[in-house]
């Protein structure tokens, strides 16, 4: 198409085929295959230029035209058409003066190798080159390619997009397949980093060299690795380098594998690979772009009569609709259907929708137009003789303007040529529907936007996603199944982080979510449920009056205290009798009163502990039992003194008459109170909790504070009991009237036995049982004193009243002697 300013396009429209019919070398022109899908590049270029020429707001009086050249990916033919375009048909370098040419810019692509080779040539003349293929890092070096601009956005977020998809489906065990080239290695490095941050592991990695034979052998060698565990395979690479490998690998993959490809696979896979009717699930990331209004209608209207100079369209029409038996006759189009259109072709042969590469061509043409328009508006002094037909700007001036060009294209999207200022691309996620087999329908099932809020960047319509034929469930790709609540992940030695064992949480620790690396310990006021999935509030536990055990102990304490009070009342009633008077009536009263307090002090151990009760428990227990035991000691001393006082010439009568045994009680009690005072002054008892002894309960108890002080109080009490027992045991057979030394001996024996048993049991018990043991020991020891000392006396007072007098006792003695 002619114009005041021309844009040249170098597109791969033919590929070399193989002649199977003769063994002699044939001419390349006779052995090429037309690439239908790439012809959309020409149509995108023509559509953009026609749209610009119709726009009165652009280019003022200038019109754009274009010329298209075929370029092949072989070193010896790649430069053929670029040389003809630059230097004429004689191919003499620098023979044709570029200043006389109307060409202003060149479009190359889609492969990076094509843009690289042609860009090296164009860079010598500072001729503006715009590439429409995928972004290639090598081409971004402006020192090597000073006149080259890439229209495609840089894939800065493709790694994040792929990992977001993996996380959405909980795939953390994936395989990698890529080529050994610089561009793939850059994407691969970012992908691995993003996978590591999100705990996605690489099950295997196959790095394929660029040699075809190596492709095949490497694929066969990796068969076991590809199929052994991971059901997801991420494939990175360019179209032509891996297409043969993918066709071979397709036969190696087990059914149901999910293949995730980056945007570079947009064309090759969906038209070649999936044409085979693959049973695998393709998920393709393609650069998102807005729909260009009018392009589909433009393509439908294209035919050879509209563009008679387009030899590529003529060949495409002939191959598609078989217009005539001879190629030369196609110029007349006598046998072509008058209403033939490109939309008659199957979708896998020719796509009516504008592809990503075609969209880049569309933007490239508009970039050139806006740069030219800016030059005209600002009257930049370029080497031109006037703005009129036949006089065009110099391409070197256009190159300087292109560096800073920014504009909004007709569909409203921002276009920026400067690599540093380019916006991050959004991605469409495509799925190929192949049911019924051969449908090959490309369906958009989701989108990834780096500009959305974190966690909402990926959007998917899973109901539109077609898994492998015969499969309805989402494939799984994990090394180890998830650990449910109550279990933690335990790494396997020598394996990746995604491979682990599930270990139950220890006691009182939980894992309330799946795949937790560590269990969380419950707080002291909480406990773990049986499933180890949540912490529950502990129920406060103490030996209360409402507890059956506490109620039984309280009843026992009250019964014993009432019995002791009854005995005291009986002794007061019969205070003038011989039995009551024997061994010091006052001491008996003191012992009975102290025993009442001993029984009642056990009630301090029941109920919810507080600071007051914790202090009173130990102090009251220590003091009242000291009074009781010291009273027993005083009674024992009284027995001994009474016997000694009856012997002639003894001075013991003076101690007995003076009431010396009565001083034993206050002295012993004062010493015990001194110990208790030191205890309260140093480290008094306090309220404490025990969260470990009883599952599901937090026991509220009294901490002894200073254990040394506690054992000093208990040890002093034991010393008094041992002294009373020893003295009573020695005086048990003294022939005195109403001698109660035997009863005192038995009472101290019971008392010492109870507390000697108490110590080991007390230390082995926990929680409420420990308190119950102490209360029971108090009641048992008090009952031992009450029973052993006063039971025989009560028996004589109530049932043997004749023995409760001195006269009765003497009569009994005489009868025994007779």
Question: What's the structural blueprint in terms of helices and strands?
Answer:
Blueprint: E1 5-11, E2 14-16, E3 32-34, H1 39-53, E4 64-70, H2 75-78, H3 80-87, E5 103-108, H4 112-123, E6 129-131, E7 148-150, H5 158-168, E8 173-179, H6 182-197, E9 201-208, H7 212-221, H8 223-228, E10 232-236, H9 239-250, E11 258-261, H10 268-273, E12 281-287, H11 295-301, H12 311-321, H13 356-377, H14 395-402, E13 406-408, E14 414-416, E15 427-433, E16 441-448, E17 458-460, E18 487-491, E19 500-504, E20 509-510, E21 520-521, E22 526-528, E23 535-537, E24 539-541, H15 548-573, H16 578-581, H17 585-601, H18 611-645, H19 652-658, H20 664-682, E25 686-690, E26 697-703, H21 707-730, H22 741-764, H23 768-798, H24 806-817
Parallel strand pairs: 1-4, 1-5, 5-6, 6-7, 8-9, 8-10, 10-11, 11-12, 24-26
Antiparallel strand pairs: 2-3, 12-15, 13-14, 15-16, 16-17, 18-19, 20-21, 22-23, 25-26
Helix pairs in contact: 1-13, 5-6, 7-9, 13-14, 15-17, 15-23, 17-18, 17-23, 18-19, 18-20, 18-21, 20-21, 21-22, 22-23
């Amino acid at each position: 198409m002619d114009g005041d300013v021309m844009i040249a396009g170098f597109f791969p429209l033919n590929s070399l085929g193989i002649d199977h019919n003769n063994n002699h070398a044939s001419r390349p022109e006779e052995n090429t295959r037309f690439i239908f899908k790439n012809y959309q590049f020409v149509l995108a270029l023509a559509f953009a230029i026609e749209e610009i020429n119709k726009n009165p707001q652009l280019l003022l009086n200038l019109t754009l035209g274009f010329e298209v050249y075929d370029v092949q990916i072989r070193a010896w033919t790649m430069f053929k058409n670029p040389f003809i375009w630059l230097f004429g048909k004689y191919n003499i370098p620098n023979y044709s003066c570029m200043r006389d040419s109307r060409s202003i810019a060149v479009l190359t692509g889609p492969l990076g190798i094509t843009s690289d080779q042609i860009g090296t040539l164009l860079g010598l003349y500072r001729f503006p080159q715009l590439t429409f293929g995928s972004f290639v890092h090598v081409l971004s070096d402006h020192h090597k390619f000073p006149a080259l601009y890439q229209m495609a956005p840089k894939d800065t977020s493709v790694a994040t997009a792929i990992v977001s998809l993996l996380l959405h489906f909980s795939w953390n065990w994936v395989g990698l397949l890529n080529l050994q080239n610089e561009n793939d290695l850059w994407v691969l490095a970012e992908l691995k980093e993003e996978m590591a941050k999100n705990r996605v592991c690489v099950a295997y990695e196959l790095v394929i060299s660029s040699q075809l034979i190596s492709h095949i052998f490497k694929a066969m060698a990796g068969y076991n690795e590809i199929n052994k565990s991971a059901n997801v395979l991420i494939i990175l690479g360019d179209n032509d380098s891996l297409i043969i490998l993918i066709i071979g690998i397709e036969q190696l993959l087990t059914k149901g594998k999910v293949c995730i490809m980056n945007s570079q696979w947009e064309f090759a896979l969906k038209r070649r690979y999936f044409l085979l009717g693959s049973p695998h699930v393709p998920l393709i990331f393609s650069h998102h772009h807005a729909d260009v209004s009018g392009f589909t209608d433009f393509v439908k209207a294209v035919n050879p009569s509209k563009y008679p100079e387009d030899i590529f369209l003529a060949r495409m029409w002939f191959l598609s609709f078989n217009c005539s038996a001879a190629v030369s006759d196609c110029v007349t189009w006598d046998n072509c259907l008058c209403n033939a259109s490109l939309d008659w072709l199957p979708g896998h042969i020719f796509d009516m929708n504008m592809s990503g590469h075609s969209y880049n061509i569309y933007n490239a043409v508009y970039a050139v137009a806006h740069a030219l328009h800016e030059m005209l508006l600002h009257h930049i002094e370029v080497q031109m003789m006037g703005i009129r037909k036949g006089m065009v700007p110099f391409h070197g001036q256009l190159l300087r303007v292109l560096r800073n060009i920014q504009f909004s294209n007709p569909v409203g999207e921002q276009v920026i040529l400067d690599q540093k200022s380019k916006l991050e691309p959004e991605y469409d996620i495509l799925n190929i529907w192949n049911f019924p087999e051969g449908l090959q329908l490309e369906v958009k099932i989701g989108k990834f936007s780096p500009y959305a809020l974190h966690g909402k960047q990926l959007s998917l319509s899973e109901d539109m996603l077609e898994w492998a034929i015969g499969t309805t469930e989402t494939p799984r790709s994990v090394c180890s199944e998830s650990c449910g609540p109550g279990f933690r992940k335990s790494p396997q030695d020598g394996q990746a982080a995604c491979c682990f064992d599930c270990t139950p949480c220890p006691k009182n620790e939980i894992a309330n979510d799946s795949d937790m690396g560590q269990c969380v310990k419950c707080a002291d006021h909480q406990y773990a449920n049986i499933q180890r999935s949540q912490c529950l509030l502990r129920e406060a536990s103490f030996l209360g009056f409402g507890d059956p055990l506490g109620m039984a102990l309280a009843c026992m304490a009250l019964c014993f205290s009432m019995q002791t009070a009854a005995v005291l009342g009986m002794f007061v009633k019969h205070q003038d009798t011989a039995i009551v008077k024997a061994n010091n009536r006052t001491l008996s009263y003191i012992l009975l009163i102290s025993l009442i307090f001993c029984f009642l002090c056990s009630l301090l151990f029941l109920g919810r502990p507080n600071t007051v009760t914790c202090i009173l428990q130990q102090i009251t227990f220590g003091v009242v039992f000291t009074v009781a035991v010291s009273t027993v000691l005083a009674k024992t001393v009284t027995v001994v003194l009474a016997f000694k006082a009856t012997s002639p010439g003894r001075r013991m009568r003076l101690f007995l008459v003076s009431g010396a045994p009565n001083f034993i009680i206050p002295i012993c009690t004062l010493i015990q109170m001194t110990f208790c005072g030191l205890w309260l002054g140093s480290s008094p008892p306090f309220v404490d909790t025990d969260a470990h002894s009883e599952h599901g309960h937090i026991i509220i108890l009294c901490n002894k504070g200073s254990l040394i002080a506690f054992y000093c109080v208990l040890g002093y009490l034991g010393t008094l009991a041992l002294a009373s027992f020893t003295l009573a045991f020695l005086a048990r057979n003294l022939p005195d009237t109403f001698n109660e030394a035997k009863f005192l001996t038995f009472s101290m024996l019971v008392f010492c036995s109870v507390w000697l048993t108490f110590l080991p049991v007390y230390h082995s018990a926990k929680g409420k049982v420990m308190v119950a043991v102490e209360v029971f020991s108090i009641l048992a020891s008090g009952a031992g004193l009450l029973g052993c000392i006063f039971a025989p006396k009560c028996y004589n007072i109530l049932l043997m009243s004749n023995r409760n007098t001195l006269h009765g006792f003497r009569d009994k003695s005489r009868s025994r002697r007779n």
